Amino acid sequence: MNEISPVVQDAATSRERSVPSNDIEVWENVRAEATRAAAGEPMLRDFLDLAVLRHDNLRGALGAMLARKLAERFMPQERLNDMVCATLSEDASIIAAATTDLIAIRMRDPASEGYLTPFLYYKGFHALQWHRVGHSLWLRQRNDLAHFLQNRVSEVFAVDIHPAVPIGTGVFIDHGTGVVIGETSVIGNDVSILQEVTLGGTGKERGDRHPKVRDGVLLSAGAKVLGNIVIGRDAKVGAGSVVLRDVPPCATVVGVPARIVGWCRETIPAHAMDQSLPEFDYQI
After folding, report:
1. What whole-number distance in Å separates Cα of residue 151 and Cα of residue 130?
2. Could you give the angle at the alpha carbon of 35 between the alpha carbons of 29 and 37, nearest 5°?
């Protein structure tokens, strides 16, 4: 296993020391960053005021932003905003999850220097929060509206997640483009998913037919995980791999079809975001 350099460890430790503990602290960070950005870039002042500075809390800003992203002719922003705000008020777990999702991005993405940029611009984050709203509606048997939102999210963000899918907290969907997650999938906490990942079935069978992804898993770019299989806790699926069988906890798998090439030791793959693979003997 590759060792983590002291520089990376120091950077990670520095970030851990400054991690907010709740949505109020995250929101204070977002507002402070928006204030600095508005002062430094006059062209963005009106936008930042609309998106952040005129709101009192994360819930209000998130609801308005999500509505603005998905609004269209027959579903105007005001109607979407009212629906999202009502859902956030009824289901407090959504804001709690959004908070941990933002913290996860800040901790795992080296391109993220704060909370404002992912809040405003990361479509993986936007798609995931819309899914949380849709899943809450699905659990209350508002299936038609949940399907409508799934379709709009797919059109706008190129992320297609069935509204029935339960997804844990601290989840990072990096880039997002091309992510597809089928109806009977389950995703745990602290999972990282990169672009073009598919959690799908193997055919047209009905019933429980999609993968179960446990806590701490890293699904690297282009990974295809197919069938009612389990990706064990803290496992890593290599880029471009096709997984058709259960993956044990802490295993690293790669290939088509995927096979075990290594084991995690200390770091959680979803946190480390390391898509490299251990050295192993294989034929190209």
Report:
1. 11
2. 100
